[in-house]
Design a protein that fits this description.
By secondary structure, the chain is mainly alpha-helical. It has helices at 9-31, 36-40, 51-57, 68-90, 92-116, 127-140, 157-175, 178-198, 204-212, and strands at 42-43, 122-123, 147-149, 153-155, 230-231. The strands form 2 sheets. It has a 3-stranded mixed β-sheet. A two-stranded antiparallel sheet has the order 1-2. Helix 5 crosses helix 6, helix 5 (92-116) runs antiparallel to helix 8 and helix 7 runs antiparallel to helix 8. It starts with 8 loop residues before the first helix and ends with a strand. 35% of the residues are buried. The model is unreliable at 214-225 (pLDDT under 50).
Length: 232
């Protein structure tokens, strides 16, 4: 059964920051004539000094036309539905790290493809964070049974990733934008790689510190029984 996840602390801050950034861009771009969108969005056609900050700021760049209102509201809604369950399971720190990894991996692969296939393309919007969170959450349940997608469709976790890749491929077929496709693949791959990084065995230094630390409590490995097993 579908239900909205709790609005977790970091996701709440992220949604507010994205919405506030969009409102500021509307004021500066449409009313003050300041080309703020070009300053924030990642230009893959002509990399330069501005690329250094655009690798991170592209997720805060949004179109400011009237047609962007509904798309902005939809991206905020889906970020809540997809990223909040990840924060519930892994915590705020890991969620912030995931967002950074997804944004950078998306931007880097888009730049590489933009150099190979030169085209006047710009990377913008929080889609990288959205795709990265879907891929990371689904990949974290790999080999642990099935998941309920939106509480309606019963799927294997890896099939959710296949579905997202298929949607990205469909968008590429309709638009022909290879840079956008590369950005989507980079975000999905970044989310999966982040989970693999979390699963890495602890280093010798960490194991040594744990041996030195005295504790009267025993640690029992395993997840919580009430841990959400669906991707909203």
């Amino acid at each position: 059964m579908f239900r909205f996840p709790p609005l977790t602390p970091f996701v709440k801050k992220l949604l507010i920051a994205l919405f506030a950034a969009w409102i500021v861009q509307i004021i500066l771009q449409n009313w003050a004539g300041v080309p703020i969108f070009e300053f924030l969005a990642l230009s893959t056609a002509r990399p330069g000094v501005n690329t250094l900050w655009q690798l991170g700021t592209h997720v805060f760049a949004f179109p400011t036309g009237p047609q962007a209102v509904f798309s902005m509201l939809i991206i905020l809604l889906f970020l809540w539905l997809m990223l909040a369950p990840f924060e519930q399971r892994f915590g705020e720190k890991r969620t912030i790290q995931l967002c950074v990894v997804a944004a950078l991996s998306s931007a880097v692969l888009a730049l590489v493809v933009g150099l190979i296939v030169p085209s006047p393309s710009a990377l913008y919007g929080a889609q990288a964070i959205l795709l990265g969170s879907i891929a990371a959450f689904a990949w974290s349940y790999r080999g642990q049974g099935r998941m309920s997608f939106f509480g309606v469709i019963d799927m294997k976790p890896v099939h959710i990733i296949y579905l997202v890749l298929a949607l990205s491929a469909l968008m590429f077929i309709t638009s022909g934008d290879a840079v956008a496709l590369a950005a989507d693949i980079g975000a999905i791959g970044g989310g999966m790689a982040f989970i693999e990084w979390l699963r890495r065995p602890p280093g010798k230094r960490r194991r040594a510190k744990r041996r030195k630390k005295k504790s009267s409590l025993d640690v029992v490995q395993g997840g919580r029984a009430d841990e959400p097993r669906w991707l909203n």
